[in-house]
Amino acid sequence: MEIKRGIAVSPGVAIGPALVVDTEGYRIPERFIQPRQRTAEVKRLRAALAAAAKEALEKQEAINQKLGKKYGAIFAAHAMLIEDPELIREVEALIQDQRHTAEYAISRVIRRHAKALESLMSAQFSTRSSDLFDIEKAILRQLLGSQGEELKHLKEPVIVLAHDLTPSETAALDPKLVYAFATEAGGRASHTAIMAGVLEIPAVVGLGRFLTDLSGGDEIIVDGNRGVLIINPDEETRAHYEETRQTIGTFFRELGELRDKPAETKDGVRVLLMGNIEFPQEVQHCLERGADGIGLYRTEFLYLNTTAHPDESDHVEAYMTVLRSLGSKPVVIRTLDLGADKFSNRTDQQDERNPSLGLRSVRLCLRNLALFKTQLRAILRASAYGDVRIMFPMISTLYELRQCKMLLAEVKEDLEELNVPFNRKLPVGTMIEVPSAAVMARELAREVDFFSIGTNDLIQYTLAADRTNETVAGLYNAGDPAVLRLIATIVDAARPGSGNGPKHNVEVSVCGEMSGDPIYTLLLLGLGLRQLSVAPQNIPEIKKIVRTVTMDEAKEVAAAVLKLDTARDVNNYLRERTRRILPELVN
Ligand code: PEP
Ligand code: MG
Q1: Ligand 1, atom 3: nearest CA belongs to which residue?
Q2: pLDDT at position 52, please?
Q3: Which backbone phi and psi does 264 adopt, to 5 degrees?
Q4: Whose CA is nearest to atom 1 of ligand 1?
């Protein structure tokens, strides 16, 4: 038995036989043609390119239907790249001048470009390089016939294992036959991870090398909750996971029945349980699970697969789609949080040595006023049609927040002059995800309607541990006392009437991954939180916990935890307390 740890990107536990998708299988040996074959070879190349482009457009159509236009757009971009004149010129030159085969020429050119992109060491560009590999495969398939087509013709359920899955491979996975997938490469923000969440297939990525340690048909366990892959489990582990899978299965079916019940503690305290979304279509996933609204809409995902900045109408269209699904329920639209591990089209920017500490998120928006104002206008315009709230990410100083509010006021004035309707009382909030903002929470509270604590970044910046770097994952811990004390400070600072704090009530929610992890629910309630915003998949289990506990219990847990001085003690204690209430939710 072998156990590998990676990044959990889509929850659920699956057991099944391995299907190893050999992405290296297409590595083409260097071969040459006769001088007289050159014209025919170029012709063969062109036919393959035309067929591959046509196939990409067909895929676009199919994915539009299956998942929505946003995803289909990936393949429209593929079709454009396949027919890119510069790319074709380079490949044809290799055939004409070097007498390489069409297969070798295309493979060499694409891999050279992909390598160049990867060497830029940016999450956004390495994601794009996987698109290039996808294109390479599509063209080679045309040139070589149908090799490596297993994924499309599955007859038995499998667990797909690959070095990396391209966006089109992931989008084409059939959730009925693909029980789970695991990849050596990939990060949280990769297209592949996003698709896994949307398709709701359990998945773990970023596992490092493991494909050499197994063969097709080996028994595999993928634990998409904890980011674990087990190869050839022993009897005991297998039995344990089999049981977990079954109890989790029954348990989650039962949780479905909570959909229309409120997230209310046993002693009658109502908690607002909201969903986090990246795409408008996900509103449906949240509502199906009984969310009270959308607590975080990560609008930077509008930039996925685009080379141009989305314009005002793109923004408005996305927001209106959200509002149409939501009815009267609220949505917190967060302004663009681009940069660092998030996609960005920063060809106009200098490379930064420390992107997480650099010109990202609201800092980037404040330097690109046209881009920022376009989004502010769109949010304001949408606010006339539903319960829209606006939130600024990555605020580090009071001055930054004031700048954002000033711009918002300017845009409001412009709209007013043009008689464009909008909500004049649009609630304004800020994320608290930088330690300086947590320390200054009292001052910030005076100037906003609500706070949302972004624990993903708050943990990263408090402990100086990169959230995407698996080698410091031990330090990056939501249970760290330093993080918990900051959360307590923030909640306290938002209460009205205390010293130089706010005069009005500032609502506080937590929207990082921590709020979707059941072991922290009791603690967060005990610390005074009455709003949690979590990934759609986590809504039922968090609702279940809320409905199972009393506030006295939660306060007792919070008081006990605040006395502990290491993350390890905190997590052990919380795991134990949660296990006592709902053993199904804790390993
Ligand atoms: C966070 O930082 O906790 C957060 C919710 O935002 P994101 O994960 O998009 O950075
Ligand atoms: Mg964040």
Answers
A1: 454
A2: 93
A3: -135, 135
A4: 454
Bridge-based pairing of strands 228-231 and 13-21 is unpaired
Do 323 and 174 belong to one domain? no
Ligand 1 in contact with 455 (CB < 6 A)?
yes
pLDDT score for 191: 62
Q: What is the pLDDT of residues 45-60, one digit of tens each?
A: 999 999 999 999 998 8
In a domain, 257, yes or no: no
Substitution candidate for ligand 1 out of 277, 342, 457, 533 with most atoms within 8 A of CB? 457
Q: Does residue 196 belong to any structural domain of this protein?
A: yes
- Measure the CA–CA gap between 82 and 383, rounded to whole angstroms: 41
Q: Within 10 A of 50 (CB to CB), how many other CB atoms are there?
A: 13
To the query of whether residue 504 is one of the catalytic residues in this protein, the response is no
Distance (Å) from CA 22 to ligand 1 centroid? 34
pTM for the model: 0.71
Q: Ligand 2 centre from 296 Cα, in Å?
A: 11
Contacts of 569 (CB under 8 A, 6+ apart): none
Domain identity same for 98 and 232? no
Q: Are 231 and 286 in a shared domain?
A: no
Specify whether 286 is catalytic.
no
Q: Quickly list H helices, 328-480.
A: 361-367, 369-382, 398-417, 435-439, 441-445, 455-463
Domain presence at residue 237: yes
Catalytic residue, candidates 113, 191, 285, 315? 191
Taking alpha carbons only, the member of 433, 430, 431 closest to residue 405 is: 430
d(CA 463, CA 477): 8
User: What pLDDT does 264 receive?
Assistant: 98
Residues 369 and 224 both lie in one domain: no
Count the residues in the chain: 587
Whether 193 is in a domain gets the answer: yes
For ligand 1, is residue 20 a contact (CB within 6 Å)?
A: no
Q: Do 447 and 457 lie in a common domain? A: yes
Q: Which residues of the chain have pLDDT under 70?
A: 22-30, 121-127, 144-150, 167-168, 187-191, 194, 212, 214-216, 304-307, 341-350, 468, 470, 498, 587
Residue 14 Cα, ligand 1 centroid: separation in angstroms? Answer: 28
* Domain of residue 48, residue span: 35-147
Residue 309: both structure tokens together: 């900045």
